[in-house]
Design brief:
This protein is α/β, with parallel strands linked by helices and 369 residues long. It has one domain: L-arginine/glycine Amidinotransferase, Chain A (5-stranded Propeller), CATH 3.75.10.10. It is 24% helix and 20% strand. It is built from ten helices and 16 strands. Strands 3-2-1-16 form a four-stranded mixed β-sheet. Strand 4 and strand 5 form a beta hairpin. It is globular and about 50 Å long.
């Protein structure tokens, strides 16, 4: 099995040809009108959730593990479907087997997929003050051509066409999981996921401007992140999330881990930068620290045990639990305090963590207009 976190730790992908980016020219509204669109914060009301069915045997050669991974995706989809509509995208030939794992509430769309990471390759929705909805193209290229994306790179454009929505493309290459927006003008991101030659060739200032245009932001706060240690180059959504404008939830390991673990060191660096920064309104952030789990069911080095990689849907937060009783309970308590109006649903989705991601990575919301 090839994991996203283990990719650059000596696990080579063999037999996977890098597909060319699926580029779409933007016709219709001008750049000026595009700039009037913004990405709503995740806690706002959703029309539906999009997800992707993992099927690639090049990425997941172990058939038994792939079946477990698909069951985890089904578990997430079924949980979300208790609160809002869910669309699961897959080639129609996989529908009969998938339907056996899915509740009747989950809708299946015949859109071919490779893997499960809908946050990165799925449609990223933006809106304007008039209530118009559009899809922002991030030109997903398999995290810098590290993984096959022959189908996944086309999904955003296909969904936009199916929904009859404008597709905006300013040439930016990357993944929405590599940024966090508070929906009120402030964006945070790791440089390692964006200012990198396998995604973008422009200067930091140019990429900064492209990201702000893409999500309708006014200020982008950068932290260095960590290059070449996982396939995403350290997406920030596995570390820090806006829970509302002005408030950031960040998961930190024990401080002594920072001396030996590059991810821990980078996490503390990101925390310190955000704690010292001001948002688009000139206010300092309230930083909420969530402890790391340690007694997890899976102990592999590249296992991602991120509580903050949760998904906010209508009336619920869908989060992972990892088998560390005390840490799991603390995470649920903190999420309940941060989202008091929502049910907190915690799932065992270890196969997704073994692949280097979490529930947020596997979902993408369509705002309700």
């Amino acid at each position: 099995m090839i994991t996203r976190r283990g990719f650059n730790r000596g696990l080579a992908i063999s037999g996977i040809a890098a597909a060319a980016p699926f580029l779409v020219s933007c016709s219709g509204p001008s750049d000026m009108i595009q700039s009037q669109f913004w990405m709503p914060e995740e806690r706002e009301l959703h029309e539906r959730t999009f997800m992707q069915w993992p099927v690639s045997r090049e990425v997941h050669p172990d058939r038994l593990f792939l079946d477990m991974l698909q069951q985890s995706i089904a578990d997430v989809a079924n949980a979300i479907a208790e609160f809002e509509p869910v669309v699961l995208m897959m080639d129609k030939k996989y529908e009969p087997a998938a339907r056996r794992k899915l509740s009747d509430a989950v809708e299946i769309w015949d859109i071919a997929t490779d893997d499960l990471w809908c946050r990165d390759s799925g449609p990223c929705f933006v809106r304007n003050d008039a209530g118009d909805l559009a899809v922002r193209h991030f030109n997903f290229n398999g995290w810098g051509n590290k993984q096959d994306h022959g189908h996944d790179g086309k999904i955003a454009a296909i969904v936009a066409e199916r929904l009859g929505l404008q597709l905006f493309d300013n040439g930016l290459v990357g993944e929405p999981g590599g940024l966090e927006s508070d929906g009120a003008g402030t964006v945070i991101a790791h440089e390692s996921s964006w200012i990198i030659a396998n995604r973008n060739s422009g200067s930091k200032a140019e990429i900064d401007a492209q990201i702000l245009e893409a999500v309708g932001g006014q200020k982008l706060i950068w932290a260095p992140g960590l290059k070449d240690q996982d396939i995403t180059d350290y997406h920030i959504d596995a570390l820090a999330r806006f829970t509302e404008p002005g408030k950031i939830l960040i998961q930190l390991p024990d401080e002594e881990d920072a001396a030996d673990d590059p991810f821990a060191a980078a996490a503390y660096q990101t925390h310190d930068i955000l704690a010292a920064a001001r948002d688009a309104q000139g206010q300092r952030f309230e930083m909420v620290i969530l402890p790391e789990p340690y007694e997890t069911r899976v102990t592999a080095e590249d296992f991602v045990a991120s509580y903050v990689n949760y998904y906010v849907c209508n009336d619920a937060v869908i989060a992972a639990q990892f088998g560390d009783g005390a840490a799991d309970a603390k995470a649920k308590e903190m999420l309940s305090e941060l989202y008091p109006e929502r049910d907190i649903v915690m799932l065992n989705v270890d196969p997704i963590g073994e692949c280097g991601g979490g529930i947020h990575c596997a979902t993408q919301q369509q705002p309700k207009i």
